[in-house]
Every structure is written in structure tokens, then in C-alpha cells.
Specification:
33 strands, mainly beta, two-stranded antiparallel sheet, about 575 residues
């Protein structure tokens, strides 16, 4: 019955759209995304052929709004899913549908929804199609504003599981655990008389989230109700800001697994509480911005199914504080959040050298310097733990958020210079030096390209790499432009040195792009491969079409510390996006 209702809604969509365009009764909007790829075999890069001519991921969102009422749904089609995404996500259906109404400061949403409490340390429901990540809640969401300065939120339901219902491919499965939560936000300047005119702005917040999951183990006595609480603050005055959050989770034995660091064991059904802290300080004035972030996390794996792993059924989200890289080689070894135990900090300074100065020139020069460092927590095994990999059913270990360990997970130092030379020429020049613990993070180095007769060398524990980037744009005319991007990564570990060149030519509505990544420094000559690619992009108003052909190197893509392995691939790619 539910499937039929979804189909009816889809068939009625054009009618609703027509009504929305010709009357004032409501507004209908949405968007569409199509990602297709063909796969040819290439043993030199480890690319595997697909049985299908093309694999496709596609999405379409539909939203209708009339007054205080809104509703929508999303179609998803995996026919079959692109390589690197969960293979069980093959099929088509409407896994996301919702309806919402607002009245007298109360908003009620039923069906599917996304929401976040604070920084997300104990609750965040969101989706990221690039990562194949989606932990949408299915149930009830309520938000109520009590006058000025006080807002309450409540959630109740189950999470979307990252696989299709095996009996009905038109629906996705929901996790077995029941998630309940409440959040409060208090803006003191609006609540306390006399503070409204103060320059110092203060807000406080608190959250509580619990999950219920039946004890189905015949080996352990597992808690069926697990709770997590968090408190946060935000203080700002002029260009100065300070915010932070602390979270605590009751014992939650689960299959969180090991993160393989020295004594830094994972959950593995241990009976230990979890906690985390996150703090940010900022300062800004004209031409200068400074930020400092720090966090420490211990045993914060929190899922609605204790057997779930990887990116499936996460209730919470641990913010990542390392720099979000956009250039290919700078992002080759990304950091993935270690929810079982990590500590670290990031500092960043952004400075604009004034116009007219000797270094600033006519247009000024932008400088960005950042440094991040992530390392282990120091953990002491408890008396009832004999071996690190046999600690199930025990308390596991003892530690605190200030018990910083000596093992370095990740660090990077980044310098970026943004310079406009004249009205036609501008460039971005960047340098990155990083240290990457591959035994913990399992990044692009874990499975380097091999041929069938190649000899596998041991994977290095730590990878040190220096990356240099030059990104130069030249405006030929008011309607034509050229962009050249050069990158070089130097390392003595893993696959050795890489070089990259990219040329982009643009005219109105069109982009023509050719690029090549060359692993010229690999010790194995058969792995010294050129990863070439050519693309054509056409965009007009709300529509964008892209067609490409070439090779894709194996690696890892991460956003906010959440990662997905990207397999090597060789073939055509096509992408279409549209909105209305």
C-alpha cells in the first residue's frame, strides 16, 4: 500500500507543478541528479569490469509548500549501484517521504527527516551522496519556540539502514533500535532582562538522546537502554568568539572494532562509558582571522544497532577539525575520525596583505596558514583484560580526555597564497606537508595498484608527503578563460612521487577539461601509470551536463572525517543535475 501511495504521488507531481506555476495555492519545487559510469578492466590500476554496460545512481527530490504546510519525497534508483557504494543498495524506490506543518511556533514533521543537536556529538541525522551516507530518521520531529530565546526540539523514531529491504526493493530497511531525543537552546540575551543591549552574546544548550535495542545475546548481558547527554555554550563579542560542547555516553557494548593503535583498543563489546569534548575559539578583524579548535574523544561509537559497523546506523557525528582539502593530491591521504579514541587540535590564520603595499600589490594578497595534529589517547588496560584483542565483556581500559598518547595519527601543515596579478591573471599557490599513519587510517596507501604478476610490498606504517600546488587562471576575453592546475606530491613511502597537470578552457555555458595524474615515482615500473581524463561540461540556467572518459585512481574520499573507499575505475562517466 505504501509503495502504491508513493507511485501515485510521483504521477501527480506534474499536475501539482502545473498548479503551482499558474495559481497562488502553493509552490512545487525539486531537483534531479544522475550519475552513471561504465567500467572497463585495467589490471595495471586494479580496475574491474562491470557486467552491466553502465552502473547508475540517481536521485530526485520533490517538495510542495502551501502556507504553513509542506511535504515532499525523494526517489532513489541504484541500477545497479556504482562501484564503491554498498552493493546491496540496488533497486529503485522512495525511501524518503515527509509532511510538516507549523502553527503557533510549533513545527511538527512526520515521516523522514534530518536534524542535529549542537555539534552532533550525540545526535546528527544527515545525508551525503558523495559518501553514500544517509542515516535519516523515520518517525516524528517536533520543534517549539517558547517566546523569544528558548527553543526545544524532540525526535522519536528509527534510522534508515544502508541497504534495501531484501524482500521488497521499493523500500529501505530501518534499524531495529528505537532512537529518542530532546534538545534545548537558550539565548540569554533574549531571556534575561537587561542583556538585550549587551555586546556580549551568550547562548546555552543541552541535549539528551537514548536508544532502545533488545538484548539478543546469549553470551553477554547487554543494556537495552543506552543514554547520552551533552551540554554546550556559545559566547561572542565583536570579533571574538568562544564555543564548546561536552558529551557523555553510558556503557554501550557493541561491535565497534579495533582501530589498531598501540593500546588504543576499540569497543569490541566492552562495558565502558564514552565521552568527548570539542572547543573552538575565533578572532577576526579587517584583514585578519584566527581560529583554534581542539577536541578529545573516547569510546563514542553510538549506533542504533550494536552490530553495525563502518558508516551504517550512526546516531551521532564527531566533528573533524583537520583542514578540508579540495585539491586532488592534498586530499590523497585524508583523515578519518577515530571514534574509539583520539585527541587533537587545529590552528588557522587568514591574513590579507593590504592593497598598495610592497607585498600586497595593487589588489592585495591573501595568506592562509594552518596546522592540525591528531594523536592517540593514553589507555591503561584494566586487570580483567588479558589480551588487547580478547577484551570483550570487560571494561576494556582506563583513560581520560586529558590522557594524551604519544602515537601520532595525522598532522598537516598548509600554506596557501591567493594572488591577483592584474585584471586578467590570478593564481592560488599552496604547499602541504603531512604525516599519515596508514596502519590506523587505512587511506589511499592500503591497496596500491598492482598487476596480476606484481609482488606486494609491505604497507608502510607512516607516510610523509610534501605536496606543491599552482592553480593559475587567465581571462582571455570577457567571455573566454583558461585555467592551468599543476600539482606534485613527493614521498619516499607507499607509491612514491606523483605529478599532475590539468587544463581547463571555458566559454559561455561550456567547460573543456583534460588532466593527467602520473605515478612516476613508483618503485615498480608496471605501476608507473598515467591516470588521464577528459571531460566536457555544459551548463545553462538550472541544468548541468558532464561527460568524461578516463582513469580514476583508487583512494579514499572523506568529508568531515567520514570516509568512503573509491575503487580504481576506467571508462565513461556521465553526470546530469537539474532543479526547478
Amino acid at each position: 500500500m505504501k509503495k502504491h501511495l508513493y507511485l501515485i504521488a510521483l504521477f501527480l507531481a506534474p499536475t501539482l507543478f502545473t498548479l503551482a506555476q499558474n495559481t497562488d495555492e502553493g509552490q512545487f519545487s525539486g531537483n534531479f541528479q544522475f550519475d552513471g559510469q561504465s567500467y572497463q578492466e585495467d589490471k595495471f590500476i586494479g580496475a574491474e569490469k562491470a557486467e552491466e554496460i553502465m552502473l547508475v545512481n540517481t536521485y530526485a527530490n520533490f517538495r510542495y509548500v502551501k502556507g504553513n504546510f509542506s511535504a515532499g519525497t525523494r526517489f532513489e534508483g541504484y541500477m545497479n549501484s556504482l562501484q564503491g557504494f554498498e552493493p546491496v543498495n540496488s533497486g529503485t524506490g522512495f525511501p524518503y517521504a515527509w509532511a510538516s506543518y507549523e502553527k503557533d511556533n510549533l513545527t511538527v514533521t512526520v515521516g523522514s527527516f534530518y536534524e542535529q543537536f549542537g555539534s552532533g556529538m550525540i545526535f546528527r541525522a544527515y545525508e551525503d551522496k558523495t559518501l553514500g551516507y544517509d542515516n535519516a530518521m523515520n518517525g516524528i520531529f517536533m520543534k517549539y519556540r517558547i517566546g523569544n530565546g528558548v527553543t526545544f526540539k524532540a525526535v522519536y523514531g528509527r534510522q534508515r539502514e544502508l541497504q534495501w529491504n531484501l524482500e521488497n526493493h521499493a523500500q529501505l530497511r530501518l534499524g531495529t533500535g528505537l532512537v529518542r531525543g530532546i534538545d534545548g537552546e537558550f539565548y540569554l540575551n533574549d531571556i534575561i532582562p537587561g542583556m538585550a543591549e549587551k555586546k556580549t552574546q551568550i547562548s546555552l544548550g543541552a541535549s539528551f538522546v537514548s536508544k532502545y535495542e533488545a538484548d539478543d545475546s546469549d553470551k553477554y548481558k547487554l543494556p537495552e537502554n543506552v543514554g547520552a547527554g551533552a551540554a554546550r555554550f556559545n559566547i561572542s563579542r565583536g570579533g571574538i568568539g568562544l564555543s564548546g560542547e561536552y558529551a557523555y555516553k553510558s556503557m554501550d557494548p557493541s561491535a565497534g572494532g579495533f582501530d589498531n593503535s598501540n593500546g588504543n583498543v576499540g569497543q569490541n563489546y566492552i562495558y565502558k562509558n564514552g565521552q568527548g569534548a570539542f572547543i573552538t575559539a575565533t578572532y577576526s578583524q579587517k584583514g585578519l582571522g584566527v581560529s583554534l579548535m581542539a577536541k578529545s574523544v573516547d569510546n563514542m561509537n553510538f549506533r542504533s544497532d550494536r552490530k553495525a559497523k563502518l558508516n551504517n546506523l550512526n546516531i551521532n557525528y564527531i566533528p573533524d577539525i583537520t583542514k578540508n582539502q579540495t585539491y586532488a593530491f592534498a586530499a590523497m591521504y585524508p583523515y578519518g575520525t577515530q571514534i574509539n579514541g583520539e585527541a587533537g587540535f587545529q590552528a588557522e590564520v587568514v591574513y590579507k596583505i593590504p592593497k598598495g603595499s610592497k607585498l600586497g600589490g595593487k589588489y592585495g594578497t591573501g595568506l592562509t596558514l594552518s596546522y592540525s595534529r591528531m594523536f592517540s589517547l593514553k589507555k591503561e588496560m584494566v586487570n580483567d583484560t588479558v589480551l588487547l584483542n580478547r577484551n570483550a565483556g570487560t571494561k576494556g581500559y582506563k583513560t581520560s580526555l586529558l590522557s594524551f598518547g604519544d602515537e601520532l595519527f595525522y598532522q598537516d601543515l598548509n600554506l596557501e597564497v591567493n594572488k591577483k596579478f592584474n585584471s586578467k591573471l590570478k593564481g592560488i599557490f599552496a604547499a602541504q606537508y603531512l604525516s599519515y599513519d596508514n596502519s590506523i587510517l587505512h587511506g589511499a596507501a592500503e591497496n596500491s595498484p598492482i598487476t596480476s604478476d606484481a609482488i606486494l610490498e609491505p604497507i608502510e606504517h607512516t607516510i610523509d608527503a610534501l605536496t606543491l600546488i599552482a592553480d593559475v587562471s587567465y581571462k582571455i576575453t570577457t567571455r573566454k578563460a583558461m585555467r592551468v592546475e599543476l600539482q606534485h606530491l613527493a614521498t619516499q613511502q607507499n607509491m612514491g612521487n606523483w605529478a599532475m597537470a590539468m587544463l581547463e578552457y571555458s566559454i559561455p555555458h561550456w567547460f573543456f577539461i583534460v588532466s593527467d595524474q602520473f605515478n612516476y615515482g613508483n618503485d615498480y615500473t608496471e605501476r608507473q601509470v598515467h591516470y588521464y581524463k577528459a571531460s566536457v561540461v555544459y551548463g545553462h540556467e538550472a541544468n548541468r551536463f558532464e561527460l568524461g572518459y578516463g582513469k580514476q585512481r583508487e583512494g579514499v574520499v572523506c568529508t568531515g572525517g567520514v570516509c568512503r573507499r573509491v575503487p580504481a575505475a576506467y571508462g565513461f562517466t556521465i553526470s546530469i543535475t537539474s532543479s526547478f
